[in-house]
Amino acid sequence: MSKAQETKTHIIVQAAALFNQQGYAGSSMSDLMRVTGLQKGGIYNHFRSKDELALDAFDFAATCVQQKFIGALQGKRHAIDRLLAILSVYEHMSDDPPVPGGCPILNTAVESDDTHPALRQRAQLAMDGWRGLIQRIVEKGILRGELRSTVNANDVATILIATIEGAVMLSKLYGDVSYLEQAVSYLKTYVQHQLATPV
């Protein structure tokens, strides 16, 4: 990796953590200079605008989340084990976040709702990827007879994601991880007892 590429990567990594903790709008150029250790010109030497940096930083953060899922799913073949592995990523989110500041998809979706259409679109694409992953696991599980034939893949994706993200929000709002722990515990029971084909 060239020196220029190393610097650009450093900026993206630091900006991803900053934006995920303070928000895009809440992060000033002086904040970016502080976390990167670079002057304004040094940052704009690699990015045409703060918007361009924000998109690259979000893509990096979303990739970090995706890598957590990939790692958790390794070696898991059964649909139930795969769904539980996804839940385990969030079970350990407070101890081992993919990016400081919590779930970047949730944070970006909330902040960019009406103010930053390009970031909102990136958050939607990341969410589409997460929903698609869960739906594929469920559909394959139904075909293999691992999950009940009456299960709806879209419903499962919605229930898992909405419950997890709501719990992440509550845990952040109250500074209490028990909300997330309770939600994950409930979802584990839901997956094991309401989705699994009865033995």
How would you describe this structure to a colleague?
- The chain has 199 residues and is mostly helical.
- The chain has a single domain (3-195), classed as Tetracycline Repressor, domain 2, CATH 1.10.357.10.
- The protein contains 9 helices and no strands.
- The protein has helices spanning 3-22, 29-36, 40-44, 50-73, 79-91, 104-111, 117-143, 153-174, 178-195.
- Helix 1 crosses helix 4 (50-73), helix 5 (79-91) packs antiparallel against helix 7 and helix 7 (117-143) packs across helix 8.
- The chain starts with a helix and ends with a helix.
DSSP helix fraction: over 70%
Q: How many beta-strand elements?
A: 0
* Rounded radius of gyration (Å): 19 Å
The CATH superfamily is identified as Tetracycline Repressor, domain 2
Number of helices, counting only DSSP H or I runs of 4 residues or more: 9
User: Kindly state the mean pLDDT as a whole number?
Assistant: 92
- The best one-word shape is elongated
